[in-house]
Amino acid sequence: MAQSLNLFISTSSPISKPSNSFLTGTFRWPVKVKTSGIRKPGQFPQLFITKASSASSDPETASAEATPQVLVSSNGIVSTPPGQDTSAIDVDAVTEAELKENGFRSTRRTKLICTIGPATCGSEQLEALAIGGMNVARINMCHGTREWHKRVIERVRRLNEEKGFAVAIMMDTEGSEIHMGDLGGASSVKAEDGEVWTFSVRAFDSSLPDYTINVNYEGFAEDVKVGDELLVDGGMVRFEVIEKIGPDVKCRCTDPGLLLPRANLTFWRHGSLVRERNAMLPTISSKDWLDIDFGIAEGVDFIAISFVKSAEVITHLKSYIKARARDSDIAVIAKIESVDSLRNLEEIILASDGAMVARGDLGAQIPLEQVPSEQQKIVQLCRQLNKPVIVASQLLESMIEYPTPTRAEVADISEAVRQRSDALMLSGESAMGQYPEKALTVLRSVSLRIEKWWREAKHHEAMELPDIASSFSDSISEEICNSAAKMANNLEVDALFVYTKDGHMASLLSRCRPDCPIFAFTTTTSVRRRLNLQWGLIPFRLSFSDDMESTLNKTFALLKARGMIKSGDLVIAVSDMLQSIQVMNVP
Ligand SMILES: Nc1ncnc2c1ncn2[C@@H]1O[C@H](COP(=O)(O)OP(=O)(O)O)[C@@H](O)[C@H]1O
Ligand SMILES: C=C(OP(=O)(O)O)C(=O)O
């Protein structure tokens, strides 16, 4: 008889215990729980443990003994008497089309995001990144035209369709930040120590005069004062303001470095950030709204909002998205990169679908030495509140120019992985660097190594995960996922399976950061892509059949075909999809 332990939570509807149930454990049948009226009886999430069939991929040699016992009814009880079911895992249960659609194989837990720019926008380059582990492609609306971004989105979508990837698209808005203009077509310009440059709000008709930088903020010349310090790209290059002449501001370079097109500008006075009118600018500019319309029309998976100051802007954007596209499940990511966003951190994260620690701009707004502790705080808070979190910027800055990372960069990546952030993001390294694929390889191999070390050393965190459920049925999901993840670690099972409609239960499992991989099965392509941002989730899209057993067989078959599980593996599965499971009334 197959190794099988089934844990069910049923409604209090009057049902009797069937004679041949598999119920084991410390609870009594029927388990009485009060229904909140949110879900109908029989629609509760569910947890069970099963053992992968010892059947080889050859159904001829399949053993009925090892058939997974997955037996459910709408009232939450097992059926199919032991020994009667002889169906082994059938590799034919999964179609060619489904195999092709689900080509994704990595069990790396930390997800990787690549900003797409001139160095990576071609189909072949995008495919190389997808093969190299890119889970999400980020397009930054601060650069390039909408037509350019549209072509990138089309290429990524084609790649997903033709090669079975689930690369999600994240559109990042420009926001109302002060930034430099284009550099007259140059991809970068070096500013040397002591050189005098002019920062001007003037619109130049033809090409920019030498040593001149255009600034996008009308009030710039009025706001800065002689003696102010001007930081480009969060301090990568520094200038001192030496003279103001009408719309022109003359500055001397004090810390040399590379000026990149449209780099962010901040100015400091007597060691403090000057926010003044910049702080009054709207979070979402009129250009951003047009970009957001573009993102909605293109069906991007995530919209990242720059310089979020409060939760209201996130709530406002989410209702706008719903009004524009009723069925849209675009997730909104808050970029934490300003003093205001730190001040209102918890309410912003609660209102958002995820957050980004945008260390580039954050490091220009708070002292650099505070960035690591803020990063840790944001990562932990996001996990507690069950929101995916991205650590971004300068992870491999030196690889924009050089083929190998610095030791300090490797240590920085390791720390973000050790903190269990959901995702790491490449910016200039992949957008315009000389070694985008190599940079991605470094992210991948460092992530894998630290994750492995963490598991081997049995570093289970004792992090307190607060209850976050807002309804009774959500509480059930949360308890099941917490228990399943704990059980998975204690029993050292090989995988967690989650069958999920909207991804919620998958994210609850991910939040626990269990040791084993989490295979997440959903029926929707967009949910699959969205889950691809979250720690430890390996998302697949499949159509489910009416009975859970054949769905389970199908998922085993898919994973076997992909070489991701093997016969005899022990699996814990949870599901929030009982609605679609066949009703089998218990006599
Ligand atoms: N779509 C694009 N077109 C041209 N250059 C880009 C694009 N996206 C990114 N880049 C380049 O990569 C650099 C780093 O990207 P990113 O961090 O997203 O931008 P920024 O820090 O300027 O907001 C940018 O400064 C820019 O030089
Ligand atoms: C990711 C960031 O934002 P952006 O690239 O838009 O400046 C950052 O500032 O770290």
Automatic annotation (TrEMBL):
Domain (Pyruvate kinase barrel) ranges: 108-439
E.C. no: 2.7.1.40
Catalytic reactions of this protein: pyruvate + ATP = phosphoenolpyruvate + ADP + H(+)
Pfam families per UniProt: PK, PK_C
Localisation per UniProt entry: Plastid, Chloroplast
NCBIfam families associated with the record: pyruv_kin
Protein name: Pyruvate kinase
Source organism of the structure: Oldenlandia corymbosa var. corymbosa
